Amino acid sequence: MKIEFELNGKPICLDAPADRRAVDLLREDLGLTGTKEGCGTGECGACTILVDGRSRLSCLMLVPQLEGRKITTIEGLAPGEHLHPVQAAFVRHGAVQCGFCTPGMVLTAVDLLARHPEPRHDEVIEAVSGNLCRCTGYQKIVSAVMDAGNTPPMPCSRQEPAPDPPPNGLRNAGRPGGTTAGSPVWMPRTLEDLWPLLAQYPQARVFAGGTDLLVWRRNGKIDSPALIGLERIDALRGIAETPDTVRIGAATTHEALLADPLVSRHFPVLKQALRTLGSPHIRHVGTIGGNLATASPAGDTLPPLHVLDATVTVQSAEGTRHLPIASLITGPGQTALMPGEIISAVIIPKPAADARQHFEKVGLRQAMACAVASLAAVVTFDDTGGIDRARLAWGSVGPTVVRLPEVEAALCGGRLDQKTLDALRPLVSRHLSPISDVRAGADYRRRVAGNLLLRLADDRPTRQATADTVEQAS
Predict the structure, then answer these.
(1) Radius of gyration over alpha carbons of the chain, in Å?
(2) β-sheet with 227-229: strand ranges across
């Protein structure tokens, strides 16, 4: 396919296979090897580039997603003999060891400083949490980023032109190994453009952020005859409220949800879960609709949406229908979506203003971890302080999100204190039937899920815990 975009300040037009990854195009075809590839699954950040000024993982982008964008690689950050202030700060602080992660770290820092010129220490740590340094030079990296935030921008007069791209755009049009040859990729801009594509390619896989699907495709888990991206359909994005509900477009990113005041005001349990989801890079492109459609038992937004009684809007060329979230997800990776249907929105009723909302996730590490177990809760109280209604949902301890009506009923009328919760902990463990996998054994999951219940009596801010911290606190 022919594609036009701006690369390091220069317009570029080239022909490339539609299903080629951006990282392969940049490195192998255009010779811009400053963009590294580490994991190829969106977990290490080595392939970070800037897309319209925002950091993005090029291993999780396909060629059509570059169309019309302004792309900056490390080669174009400050061409010639001069360094960008962030690069200079990395040199001053010795924030480079083997150097493999450095381009991604630098571009991530440039994105952060463009939005927060004077970031706090914790904000820098959060920003680079999706960029792995195997040399463990994080302290110097963080110091360099904070120092660069205090450095005046480099004068424009020092900027020099970026190197010209190879003649005729491509250095090497060969295909990388491990990808599916010849799959068309469509990026419709309206729903009216989408419906005919779904009819023409009924076996096509639909994606928004692509943070799971593009990994599965590269690993050979799926081999779709066509891909259809939703990221450019404006009608699928945005957050709006009515007096009783909030409507979230399915292609709204996790990052946008975290920044939205309606989500902060009405759904802190969802916001707490979003903070633990992947890395900033993943949250920048991943969407709430994608998290639902993936239907992973460990999907971080699913327990909060269950306890918030969310409804999913499903749309097709034939019309619209609404499903309770419990009816949408039917098993691991399985949904009630019919051919030609997509998730277009999520509608969440506003809970009582004084409801206690809580989310906690236990993983094997503090960041970039899938849940061993998670718990979301919304609890409301009567005038005497007793529990009027409790909604609880556990993630990663069953084929889908697990609700336990027996436990919810047992809580009603009682006090939300340690004694009440401790008495119910065996009931939780008895009714759960988790599996053993690479992250944890079934017995351990059952035990941690019961221990998470004790957190409901805790007024401390919700956080992502490791398995060890939950065990110690219980």
Answers:
(1) 24
(2) 185-186, 227-229, 205-207
* 3-class SS of residue 52: coil
Expressed in angstroms, the distance from the first to the final Cα of the chain is: 57
In degrees rounded to 5, what are phi and psi of residue 441?
A: -80, 160
With CA atoms as reference, report the closest residue to 395 among 319, 303, 322. 303
Closest by CA to 53, choosing from 284, 295, 315, is 284
Long-range contacts from 56-60, C-beta under 8 angstroms, 24+ separation: 56/281, 56/284, 56/285, 57/281, 57/282, 57/285, 58/21, 58/22, 58/23, 58/26, 59/21, 59/22, 59/23, 59/214, 60/209, 60/210, 60/211, 60/214, 60/215, 60/285
Spatial distance between the Cα atoms of 74 and 131, rounded to a whole number of angstroms: 15
Condensed to tens digits (0 to 9), the pLDDT of residues 102-125 reads 999 999 999 999 999 999 999 999
> Which residues on adjacent β-strands are paired with residue 374?
361, 395
Question: In this predicted structure, what is the pLDDT of residue 268?
Answer: 97
Q: How far apart are CA 63 and CA 169, in angstroms?
A: 13
Q: How big is the chain, counted in residues?
A: 474
Residue, of 337 and 469, whose pLDDT is higher: 337
Q: Which residues pair with 70 in a beta bridge?
A: 6
**In angstroms, rounded to a whole number, what is the distance separating the alpha carbons of residues 317 and 387?**
45
Alpha helices in 2-137 (DSSP H): 22-24, 74-77, 85-92, 102-115, 121-127
Q: Residue 470 CB: number of other CB atoms within 10 A?
A: 20
Q: Please tell me the distance from the alpha carbon of residue 328 to that of residue 305, in angstroms, as a whole number.
A: 12
Q: What confidence tens digit (pLDDT) does each residue in 265-302 have?
A: 999 999 999 999 999 999 999 999 999 999 999 999 99
pTM given for the model: 0.89
CA distance linking residue 116 with residue 355, whole number of Å:
33
Cβ atoms of residues 422 and 393 within 8 Å: no
